[in-house]
Every structure is written in structure tokens, then in C-alpha cells.
Specification:
By secondary structure, the chain is α+β, with helices and mostly antiparallel strands. The chain has a domain of 153 residues. It is 68% helix and 7% strand.
Length: 352
């Protein structure tokens, strides 16, 4: 960009009218190189990334549905929900299979209603029934109620109409952008853009569910010898983790990318924010009987809401937070990538 401005300055100061005309032609071709540099590293989301997100998304649905079930039956203000690492793996695999099934919708171009309302929901409901029977680990086949069928059918419509469409718009940039993205201009609709802040918040909230389910399942395995690896969390944790991680990510962008702070300089700031966040949320939720944790029986606790015993875990999560932020910054979204990817997918299959 600097070289172009210098070239333009030389042409204006030292040339006649003919010289100006001759300089305009190559300058029209140069922006194509810039756009090529901006779009060349973009590619489809790697499979490991999609499997990671699918498992996290599946755990979120488990927690949400089980929490709502508990609210209806027990009126529990703690909004506890349940899942397990087993279900996380199963969700990763089934979501990946559903992605492949969704890619076959081109076979139903003349009958899209059949695909979205009959074929895809049937496959989805069948997989969910299979997961439910595998997770129970019993010889008897568990019956599915009409309410469960209705809920699964609604979720199938959500996946076919919202989830897969959203995922098809995402692309991955191999290198982390070193400068903030430019402001929207006339061609902003076609240019891939970073994920909005709301998506970052939702991602961190879902990842908080995954973190707590994994931690509590391992805790139950060690302390209670629970081989089902059942873990739990609370819907309030979604807001806690989502908001806290969102703030920490903004600090990462400012302290690291803008001010050049190293990891060990940022880490104490992260940990202080996490403890402040946990204490504040716990203090507020306790007033309504909705706080789902109590560290009173742990050493070095303060009011039973925070404890230094969990300091190593918060340090590890703080370090992992930067990794997640880097990954999210490399993901781009565009409104036109859906159709292009379908065409490219067909062309690539033909080449292979």
C-alpha cells in the first residue's frame, strides 16, 4: 500500500498529462493482488475444528434440554443441566454424519420440502434415538415419548434451516491477521469478514458448558467412581463464561496485539478477572438461591464462592483462552460462500 502511494506521488510531481494516463493503467491492476492476498489463505474449516465445535454444540443442547426439564419438574433456580464426555464424542460423530447428509440436498433440488421436512428429520431423529439407547448402556430399548419426538423434530428443522447454513458460510484463514479489519466499503458483502462479537460470546458460553461437564465428570470418576462420566453445569454458567471470556479476549487483543505484552504479563490480569467474575456472579446468584457451587469445604476459600485450590485450573484455562481467541480470529464469514462452496465441492469431486 505504501509503495502505491509513493508511485502515485512520483507520477503527480514529475509527469505531464500523458504520464498520468500511463500510470493509471497499472494502478487499476494492483488492487487485484491485494484482494488475492486477502482471500488466498481462506479455506474450509478443518475437520478437527468442525468435530470440536460439533461436540461442544451437542453438549450445549444436552445441558439446555436437561436444564429445562428440571425447571419444569423441580422449579430449581440453579438451572442444572447434564451431559458427559461420551455424549460429546457421539455428538461430534453424528453431527459430522449429518453434515454429509445435508450436503446431499442437491439430490432433492426439485423437492426441497421433502428433504427439509421429511428426509433430514427422519435421519436426525433416528440418530438421536440411537444415541439415547447407547448412552443408557442397557439391554432394553428405551422408548421415546411423543414430546421427545416433537422436540427432536424441531431440532432437526433448526439444524437443516439454521445450523448447517451458518456453518457453510465459515472459512478458515491460515494466518492470524496482524491488523484490524478495514471498515465496510462498497464490496463488503462479498469480502469475508470476522465473526461478530455475539458469535464470540456464544462460542465462549458453549465452551464453558464443555469445560464444566468435563471437569465434573472427571471429578465424579475420581471421587465417586462413576464410570458413566456424567457431568453437570448450570445455564447461568453460559452467561458467566461467555461474558468473562469475551472480556478476556478483548484484553488479549489490546495487551498482546496492541501493546505487545507477553503471556506471563497477561496471565495475572486474566486470573484476577476470572476470580472477580466468579465471586461477583456467585454473590448475586446466592441471593436468589441459584448459585450452583459452594467451596466452603475447600481450603483457602472466601465466602465459599472462590478458592485458591482451583488456581492451577484457572491458569490453564487462561492460557487456553488465548489459543481459542487465535482460532476465532482466523475464522471468517461471508454471505456468498455457501453457493460457492457447493459449486467448488462439485468441481473438486470431478477433479478427483
Amino acid at each position: 500500500m505504501d509503495s502505491r502511494w509513493r508511485d502515485g506521488a512520483h507520477s503527480r510531481t514529475g509527469g505531464a498529462a500523458g504520464g498520468l494516463k500511463s500510470e493509471r493503467a497499472p494502478r487499476q491492476d494492483e488492487p487485484s493482488g491485494e484482494s488475492a492476498d486477502a482471500t488466498e489463505p481462506l479455506r474450509e474449516l478443518p475437520q478437527w475444528m468442525r468435530l470440536y465445535f460439533y461436540g461442544m454444540h451437542g453438549v450445549t443442547l444436552d445441558v439446555l434440554l436437561s436444564s429445562l426439564h428440571g425447571v419444569v419438574n423441580k422449579r430449581d433456580p440453579k438451572l442444572l443441566g447434564f451431559s458427559s464426555p461420551y455424549l460429546c464424542v457421539m455428538h461430534s460423530l453424528t453431527h459430522f454424519a449429518l453434515e454429509k447428509i445435508y450436503s446431499q440436498k442437491r439430490c432433492f433440488r426439485s423437492r426441497p420440502v421433502v428433504f427439509h421436512l421429511v428426509f433430514y428429520p427422519s435421519i436426525y431423529i433416528g440418530l438421536q434415538i440411537l444415541i439415547g439407547n447407547i448412552s443408557t448402556l442397557t439391554e432394553q430399548v428405551r422408548l421415546v415419548s411423543g414430546t421427545q419426538l416433537a422436540v427432536n423434530y424441531i431440532l432437526a428443522l433448526y439444524f437443516s434451516q439454521v445450523f448447517h447454513r451458518g456453518m457453510s458460510k465459515l472459512q478458515y484463514q491460515t494466518e492470524l491477521p496482524s491488523t484490524p479489519e478495514p471498515e465496510d466499503r462498497g464490496d463488503s458483502r462479498a469480502r469475508p469478514r470476522g465473526l461478530p462479537g455475539l458469535v464470540h460470546f456464544l462460542f465462549f458460553g458453549m465452551h464453558g458448558f464443555l469445560d464444566e461437564v468435563l471437569f465434573t465428570s472427571l471429578f465424579n470418576l475420581v471421587e465417586k467412581s462413576d464410570r458413566t462420566l456424567s457431568g453437570h453445569t448450570s445455564l447461568w454458567s453460559f452467561l458467566m463464561y461467555g461474558s468473562c471470556s469475551f472480556v478476556v479476549e478483548k484484553l488479549y487483543l489490546h495487551l498482546h496485539l496492541s501493546r505487545g505484552w507477553g503471556t506471563w504479563q497477561r496471565l495475572p490480569v486474566y486470573v484476577c478477572i476470572i476470580y472477580t467474575w466468579e465471586f461477583t456472579w456467585g454473590l448475586v446468584l446466592r441471593q436468589f438461591g441459584a448459585c450452583s457451587w459452594d467451596y466452603s469445604h475447600y481450603p483457602h476459600n472466601f465466602m465459599g464462592l472462590i478458592t485458591l485450590l482451583y488456581l492451577p485450573g484457572w491458569v490453564c484455562l487462561s492460557l487456553y483462552q488465548d489459543v481459542l481467541s487465535n482460532v476465532l480470529l482466523k475464522i471468517k464469514s461471508t454471505k456468498t460462500v455457501k453457493d460457492n462452496r457447493e459449486v467448488n465441492g462439485e468441481l473438486e469431486s470431478e477433479k478427483l
